[in-house]
Amino acid sequence: MDYDLLVIGAGTAGSFAARTAIGLGGRTAIVEQDGFAGTCLASG
Amino acid sequence: MLVSTVELAWRARRGAELGLAGAAGVGLDWGEVIARKNRIVASWSQGKDQALERQGIAVLRGHATFLAPHELQVGDRTVTTEKIVIATGSSPARPSIEGIEHTVTSEELLDRTALPGRMVAIGGGAIGMELGFAFARAGLYTNVSVRRITGDRTVEADIGGTTHRLSADVVVVATGRPPNTEGLRLDLAGVRLERGTVSVNEYLQSPTAPHVYAAGDVTGRHQHTPAAWYEGRVAAENALKGNHEAVDFNVFPTTIFTIPAVAQVGLTEAEARKRGLRVGVGRSPFEDNTAASVREETEGLVKVIYDEASGQLLGVHILGPNAEDLIHIAAVAMRGGLRRRDLAGMHYVFPTLAGTVFDAMWE
Description:
The complex is a heterodimer.
Chain A: E1 3-8, H1 12-23, E2 28-32, H2 39-43
Parallel strand pairs in A: 1-2
Chain B: H1 2-14, H2 30-45, H3 48-54, E1 58-61, E2 64-68, E3 71-74, E4 77-86, E5 104-105, H4 106-109, E6 119-122, H5 126-137, E7 154-159, E8 162-167, E9 170-173, E10 193-194, E11 197-198, E12 212-214, H6 225-241, E13 254-256, E14 261-266, H7 269-274, E15 279-285, H8 290-295, E16 301-307, E17 313-320, H9 323-335, H10 340-344, H11 355-359
Parallel strand pairs in B: 4-12, 5-9, 6-9
Antiparallel strand pairs in B: 2-3, 3-4, 7-8, 10-11, 13-14, 14-17, 15-16, 16-17
Helix pairs in contact in B: 1-5
């Protein structure tokens, strides 16, 4: 396996999930197709 | 952000009543308001991918599609993984209403650099209410109880049993945000969807695909930023360390940023009564608050729902100035297990808006 945890989406929930996983020492990847902010934050 | 700017302009114009000279001429440069919003939003997402990479996280660009339970296609590469967290968020709903092509979403509306003359908002949830209030305080006509739209930007609505025809320059649709699950091929991972949302247990785990977790808007439950960061952390911890933390939203304060805002934590009076609890209710209006009177912002009240026998706080609801901050007094009290009497006896600073929260704790 390439990763312990793959997070799909780099919005608010996804970014926190990925940072938590790397903090726990897991091999972590995050997938994002658009921007890097959550909906509430990105839309104002 | 836009609400705070619009509210500032509204306050400034009302400043004439408080003796502020030149206040009546204060207006909004909407193009600049939107440009500033876009600058700030860009600064939040700028460099975020590099920040993630610096922490050791592999950032994969592209659309993700399941090929098998542990195998995904991302762009033109194939990756394998033990566990997965789905955090694909949500997008504005496009309900099947005749003439929907003449409407805009909340996201499209917030990128327009000119204020519409007349706006109709369809949908009375948090987003519809916030847009309605923000644009109404900007000096516009709005209506938030519309049900149908026919024809070109003329909204036909049933209001109070009679049919009204509302012509508008912009019709914004704010009828919820369904999860983004299309194109993921979650079926190939064994993940079950319930009306388009990723169905999860209290550990944020898919019951049908135990190696898959979900967090944030895509679970369709608490579509708020604080819920997203909380669920993101819990999902990742449970995925890597085994299920050890169930999500707990018992004390989860939320606010709808109308002007003034409405904030709540815990149960409503109706919910508490439905559970068969012996309910006591305390109320204190901001009219009785000196700090509110001084500001000329006396609209609203604090309402407290408590268990009559024990005085345990069941829910607190605030409509009024600074409701979005004041609600945390109630949230901390509920989390700490404080009773109504503990708060009623609190010493507090006079004059403050917070005083009304404590006053509402008296019978």
